[in-house]
Structures are given as C-alpha cells and as structure tokens.
C-alpha cells in the first residue's frame, strides 16, 4: 500500500524572488530533482524547468538567456526554449521545418510555478497541472502588508535531512540553549507546556499558553510557522519557515520574519547585516548538533525505533512526537528518494570539517542577493582604502619639507583612519560572509 502523503503534489517555495538573478539561469535541487530557474525577457515572472536539455541531457542551468529572443539557450548545442518549454531553435537542423514537425518531442520539461508573497513557488508533478492551479500556496496570513506587517526573507542550504530540519523547528525548547545570547538565554529557560490542538494528514497545530501565547502550525510538507502574540497590545511576531527536502542528508530553509511593530528599526537595518549577525548565527547554533544527532539516530534506527532511541518525557517534546508519528503514519517514515532514482545509505557520513559544515558562502551568501552585493562592496572598498593609503604615503614622502606638516599630516591622519577601516573590513566583516565557527562552550 503506497504512502498516503504525496510529496510531489504540493507547492514548494524555492527562493525569495529578490535573490534570483533575472539575467542568468539558477540551478536548484528539490526532492532530488535538479531544476533550473530562469526569467524570460518578455515575462514578469520566473520559470522552472527540469535541468536537462532534451537533446543530450546537458544542464540548462549552464545555459544563458539569449539577448535577441529572450529564450533559454542550452550552452552545449544552442537549442532554445521559450517560457512554456517549447523548442524554438535547433541550430543543427538541416530542414527549417524540423523544429515545427517534432515540437512535442523536443520540449524541455516545464513545471507549474508562480510568484506569491515575494517567493517563487514550484509544483513538481507535471501531470497534475490542474490540481496545482486549484491548490493554494501554503502562505502565512501574517505576510500581508495590508494588515500592517513588515517582513524580511532568508534562505540557506543545510547539511542535514528534511525530517531533522522539521523536527528541530518544531522544538521551541532548544532555543534558550542552542541559541544562547542570540535568540534566548539558558539562565531563563522554563518548562514549555505544549498542547496539540489538531493533527491530520494535512495539518498539525499546537499551542503554548503564557505571556507570549504562541500557535505553532505545521502544514506538510514544508510550512512550519510560529505565530506569537504579545498580550493585549496587538503586537504580533511571526516565524514562517519553509522546510525544503533537497537530497538525502540535505535540506534548505526559506524563512520569512513578519511583525507589526518596530517598523522603523526594520526599515533602517540592512538585510545583509541582519543575515550575518542574526539569521546565519541562529542556524549555525543548530548545525553541528543536528548533523551529529542525525548520524547517531540513523545508526540507532538500524536496530530500534526513534521511539526508544529518543527519550521524550516532557510536554515540550509533544510536537516532535506528533511530527514523528505523522511521518510514520502517512509517509512510512521516509521520503520518496527511490521515486527519483536516489538510493539512501543506512547511515550518513559524519563530516568533522567544521568549515564545510558551517560554510556560509556556499550555503547562503552565493544565494542571497543582499549578501552577495554587500560582499562585493566590502571587497571593492578595501581596494580603494588600501590604494589611498599607498598613494598617500608615497605622495607625502615626495612632498617638500614645508608642506609635510601643514598638508602631509592631515593626509596621513586620514590615510591611517582608512587603514584602520581596511583592517576592520578585512579581518572582521569580510569573513562573516564565508565562515564563522560556532562553539557553544564559548558562549
């Protein structure tokens, strides 16, 4: 009997739209399927294709958007495809009618996709386009400017599996400890009374009472949202996460952070600054823990169930238990990797290279338009400051003695300040786009 939950007939957000480059194709992997995102010159919206040219299966993500036609061109032999995936050009065709006569056989595989709430959404099952059109995206009601909310977005690839990601986000009790000093304080940790309000195939909802009443919603396969209310003041804060299954042992998180207060602070804080000082640190506080937790759980599951491998005695564990039971009941405790031709090892390999596990550049910076742009500006400014310092030192050295005090001294002062700024950029700021080690014992 097949699993009740079909992972392929759901909407997934691949990326914040603002992080996509309209001038070049972008590769992305979802449920083991390699996809390419691109934007036709004549369209306001992006398209998602299977990342294979029908000619010889070369990756379309290595192609380009042709300046003349606005279509996606394969870089291997120059075949072109319009926004529907229809082949429009085969440079090798001896007969101009070849393309028109065999058009159905020469198409790239286009997936249903759309843009909503600043995210690009894709539906993986090409045979259920009508169902896709009738199925609403799992969006948050708080990501709505008309209700007074503002929000920012964030994306990062993670070195652990989808089920580990969902389980972690569904566990609020780890925050004061794993994220001490960033989002929590271990000295103030208290018991969390979690109550499961409902649990079905398509929705799990839990609540916590208290000063900051919280509703936690899991809408499979990806939306996991925290809606937090601050008493009777009408202040609301949200954590909207989309947990994306990428490949065995790999996942992606796309997150939005809506709120209806402190809007001025939000508007004045650069997106990239929030990412390097807050959002990335939160995920890095989990990364080493979860990668090793997943490794040990997979080892234990060869001989026993998670129900005995884990010890879950408190109310704070209830949502984790509910998710694991849902995964067992409706998905047989596994993702559909075999359906896309992927084999899964009994246990993952444990990566002890912290620079790889916590690689900010590969996991986030290269995907984020704000951080990519900030990094380029930081590197460019370093060159300017260093060049100014060298030129100033050389210029002052050649000045007549009479000018060195009156003109040379102010120039040297500015140059030294510039050198100090260069040092800060080089030693402190630039590395935060690449790698920051997260050592819990030092926090």
Automatic annotation (TrEMBL):
Tell me the GO molecular function terms: 2 iron, 2 sulfur cluster binding; chlorophyllide a oxygenase activity; metal ion binding; oxidoreductase activity, acting on paired donors, with incorporation or reduction of molecular oxygen
Kindly indicate whether the keyword Acyltransferase belongs to this entry. no
**Which protein is depicted?**
Rieske 2Fe-2S domain-containing protein
Presence of keyword Chaperone: no
GO CC field? cytoplasm; membrane
Keywords per UniProt: 2Fe-2S, Iron, Iron-sulfur, Membrane, Metal-binding, Oxidoreductase, Transit peptide, Transmembrane, Transmembrane helix
What PROSITE patterns does the record point to?
A: RIESKE
Where, by residue number, does the polypeptide cross the bilayer?
Answer: 409-429
Q: Which InterPro entries match?
A: Cholesterol_7-desaturase, PaO, Rieske_2Fe-2S, Rieske_2Fe-2S_sf
PANTHER family to which the protein is assigned, alphabetical:
CHOLESTEROL 7-DESATURASE NVD, IRON-SULFUR DOMAIN CONTAINING PROTEIN
The UniProt record lists the Rieske domain at 11-122
Cellular location(s) = Membrane
Predominantly, its location class is membrane
């Amino acid at each position: 009997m097949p699993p009740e939950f079909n992972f392929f007939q759901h909407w997934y957000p691949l990326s914040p739209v603002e992080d996509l480059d309209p001038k070049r194709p972008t590769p992305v992997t979802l449920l083991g399927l390699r996809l390419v995102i691109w934007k036709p010159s004549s369209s306001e919206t992006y398209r998602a294709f299977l990342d294979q040219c029908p000619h010889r299966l070369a990756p379309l993500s290595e192609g380009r958007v042709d300046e003349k036609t606005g279509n996606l061109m394969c870089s291997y032999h120059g075949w072109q495809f319009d926004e529907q995936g229809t082949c429009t050009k085969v440079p090798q065709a001896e007969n101009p009618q070849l393309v028109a006569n065999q058009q159905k056989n020469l198409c790239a595989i286009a997936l249903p996709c759309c843009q909503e709430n600043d995210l690009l959404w894709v539906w993986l099952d090409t045979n259920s386009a009508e169902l896709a059109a009738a199925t609403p995206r799992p969006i948050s009601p708080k990501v709505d400017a008309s209700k007074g909310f503002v929000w920012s977005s964030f994306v990062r690839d993670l070195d652990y599996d989808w089920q580990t990601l969902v389980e972690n986000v569904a566990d609020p009790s780890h925050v004061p400890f794993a994220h001490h000093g960033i989002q929590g304080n271990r000295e103030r940790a208290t018991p969390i009374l979690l109550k499961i309000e409902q649990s079905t195939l398509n929705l799990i909802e839990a609540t916590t009472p208290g000063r900051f009443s919280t509703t936690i919603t899991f809408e499979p396969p990806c939306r996991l949202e925290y809606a937090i209310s601050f008493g009777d003041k009408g202040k609301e804060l949200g954590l909207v996460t989309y947990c994306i299954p990428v490949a065995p042992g790999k996942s992606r998180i796309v997150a939005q952070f809506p709120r209806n207060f402190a809007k001025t602070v939000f508007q004045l804080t650069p997106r990239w600054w929030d990412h390097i000082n807050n959002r990335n640190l939160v995920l890095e506080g989990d990364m080493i823990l979860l990668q090793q937790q997943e490794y040990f759980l997979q080892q234990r599951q060869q001989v026993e169930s998670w129900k005995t491998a884990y010890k879950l005695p408190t109310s704070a564990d209830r949502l984790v238990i509910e998710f694991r039971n849902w995964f067992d009941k409706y998905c047989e405790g596994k993702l559909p990797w075999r359906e896309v031709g992927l084999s899964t090892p009994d246990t993952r390999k444990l990566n002890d290279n912290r620079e790889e596990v916590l690689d900010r550049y590969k996991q986030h910076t290269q995907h984020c338009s704000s951080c990519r742009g900030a990094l380029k500006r930081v590197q460019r400014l370093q060159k300017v400051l260093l060049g100014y310092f060298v030129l100033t030192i050389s210029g002052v050295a050649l000045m007549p003695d009479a000018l060195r005090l009156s003109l040379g001294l102010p120039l040297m002062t500015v140059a030294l300040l510039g050198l100090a700024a260069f040092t800060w950029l080089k030693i402190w700021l630039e590395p935060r786009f690449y790698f920051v080690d997260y050592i819990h014992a030092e926090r």
